[in-house]
Write a structure and sequence with these properties.
Elements: H1 2-24, E1 30-31, H2 41-55, H3 60-71, H4 102-115, H5 122-136, E2 145-146, H6 158-162, H7 170-179, H8 184-190, E3 198-200, H9 206-209, H10 223-232, E4 241-243, H11 255-261, H12 268-271, H13 277-286, H14 292-306
Antiparallel strand pairs: 1-2, 3-4
Length: about 325
């Protein structure tokens, strides 16, 4: 009988313990994590990226997406940066073969190691770089939470099941985002990152030649846009690059949503945003130019949310000396 009287108290303590454990992953993720250990960290990243963007502005889109591709596989732990002598790392997986800019992350890491050896993680570098390239393309600024540590595992198979594919429908997209603790709003907001950068024809050619509409075209894609894309992308083209947001490829703005509203989103996953009431409403809202400030604010919030996915903090993982290999 005594034990039964104590059980509610024990249950309460167990619940408290589980909550503390659940929250501990983010306990050391905060703005200004390096304030004492490497106070110039973000300034150093900003300076390197300022130099890079002056000579290679086309890397803004790939560097932003690199952070996405990292966070959706094993969380934001820098695992996408790891090399494998046998070609079995995340970067060797088909969804990641088009990523570019690894040498830029290495350049930033070298500068930080010179200033503060063994302090700033590669995972944090990618998060800060993603913010800085957004700002460099006239996009929003947000305070980046830092304190991530680097993972030691990178598996070629995991991107195949964790990264939302360009041909995903809205149900698949919502499910994959929710599995990472991200909301439907995060999905539609983060999709707006397609406002900068390019894509290979092979990522959307099935919409032009192997779909269910007339002449094998995708009926959800604007017919005039189809003809323009066909003039750029011939059958089997694996190399040509096409702007994801024509006319705005190097400017971070909300014109992506205007294209999606006009059925000119490049990927099937873009078009899918019109197949859900919540995502469609956001597309319609942002397709009005006057709502640009709200998109900027939303994007910063959703990037912070994504940056918390599966992070390693405290004594978990490591701080890599070189981002492409474990210590």
């Amino acid at each position: 009988m005594a034990s039964s009287k104590l059980s509610p108290c024990l249950i309460f303590l167990q619940v408290v313990f589980l909550v503390l454990v659940f929250n501990s992953a983010n306990a050391q993720l905060r703005v200004g994590f390096y304030k004492d250990t490497c106070p110039k960290a973000e300034a150093i990243v900003e300076e390197v990226m300022h130099q890079v963007m002056k000579v290679a502005p086309s890397l803004s889109g790939p560097l932003l997406r690199m952070h996405f591709h990292d966070c959706f596989v094993r969380g934001c732990d820098g695992s996408v940066l790891l090399n494998s002598s046998t070609g079995q790392a995340e970067k060797d997986s088909p969804p990641n073969l088009s990523l570019r800019g690894y040498q830029i992350i290495d350049r930033v890491k070298t500068a930080l190691e010179k200033e503060c050896p063994g302090v700033v993680s590669c995972a944090d570098i990618m998060a800060i770089v993603a913010r800085d390239v957004t700002v460099a393309t006239m996009g929003p600024f947000w305070e980046v939470e830092t304190g991530r540590r680097d993972g030691r595992v990178s598996n070629i198979l995991e991107p195949l099941t964790n990264l939302p594919p360009f041909f995903a429908n809205i149900s698949q997209l919502i499910s994959m985002f929710r599995s990472k603790g991200l909301s439907v709003k995060d999905l539609v907001v983060l999709s707006g990152g397609h406002t900068i950068g390019t894509s290979h024809c092979s990522s959307f050619s099935s919409r032009l030649y192997n779909s269910t509409g007339k002449d094998g075209t995708d009926p959800t894609l604007d017919s005039e846009y189809i003809e323009k894309l066909k003039s750029r992308c011939k059958v089997g083209d694996q190399t040509t690059l096409v702007e994801m947001d024509p006319g705005s490829v190097r400017t971070f703005d909300n014109s992506y949503y205007t294209l999606v509203a006009k059925r000119r989103g490049l990927f099937q996953s873009d078009a899918a945003l019109l197949d859900n009431s919540e995502t469609k409403a956001y597309v319609k809202l942002q397709s009005a130019a006057t709502h640009r400030p709200t998109f900027f604010k939303d994007f910063g919030v959703s990037m912070i949310n994504m940056g918390r996915v599966g992070v390693l903090t405290g004594k978990a993982g490591e701080i890599r000396k070189v981002c492409s290999k474990v210590n």
